[in-house]
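Changelog-linked ticket: LQXTBERG example.
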Amino acid sequence: MNELPKYVLIVAGGRGLRMGEQLPKQFIPIAGKPVLMHTLDAFVRYDASVRLIVVLPESHQQYWQDLCREYNFSVPHQIATGGETRFHSVRNGLKLVNSSGLVAIHDGVRPLVTTDVIDACFRAAASDKAAIPVLPMIDSLREYNETGSMPVDRTRYCYVQTPQVFDSATVLSAYDVPFDECFTDDASVVEASGHPVTLVAGNRENIKITTPFDLLIAEAVLKGRTNI
Ligand SMILES: Nc1ccn([C@@H]2O[C@H](COP(=O)(O)OP(=O)(O)OP(=O)(O)O)[C@@H](O)[C@H]2O)c(=O)n1
Ligand SMILES: C[C@](O)(CO)[C@H](O)COP(=O)(O)O
């Protein structure tokens, strides 16, 4: 892969309402440190030269600085301020991308992302300009209709994960638009700008911590990993 600068934009500007805790989930400690520190560590393990940008709620920026001191967390990173939705948080973070290169956008609450998945996404984006990790559906699927519901062909659908990696010019111009409710991830923004997105294999461990159950799973997986 040619050595373009690699930016990693970690979005952690949300409030974690579905977790039902006062403290936003990205700051909750699991397996010895806050979720967000595990996430940053995963990217540094992949490549220590990545340029990290972390998007945080304005209300918790001092809190994060205090946490970094408390945990002696010294991974270099820039801070951007979160917005009303994930889209707005990403857009704020992208303002700190100041040279051409590749930009990975990753949920701060996906701390179990593996080096293999990060590498596969960067490699695919280096050739295709836009790449995202996906997983096949495991369970049977049904679709609601007017009369009830009906089974659908699960092979036509997939789960979408992060990191979603893009050529910087492609993602910067894609995000220069007003917010649309259809923008549930970065791939949807880039595709709306007319650029196709390449799908690469994700990893089942790479869950997004959303509910208290996810926190238990994430902690168990982290504790089970022997190499960190
Ligand atoms: N305004 C927002 C909303 C979300 N995110 C981030 O986007 C990621 C995925 O979003 P989600 O899991 O939906 O997080 P929250 O919005 O915090 O959760 P909830 O929807 O339960 O409130 C998280 O790392 C979250 O911090 C963000 O940076 N800014
Ligand atoms: C970006 C994402 O992680 C892809 O699965 C997801 O869209 C994040 O937000 P959501 O609110 O949980 O859909």
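Closing comment: Example verified and attached. Residues 115-128 form the longest helix (14 residues). The first strand starts at residue 6 and ends at 11.
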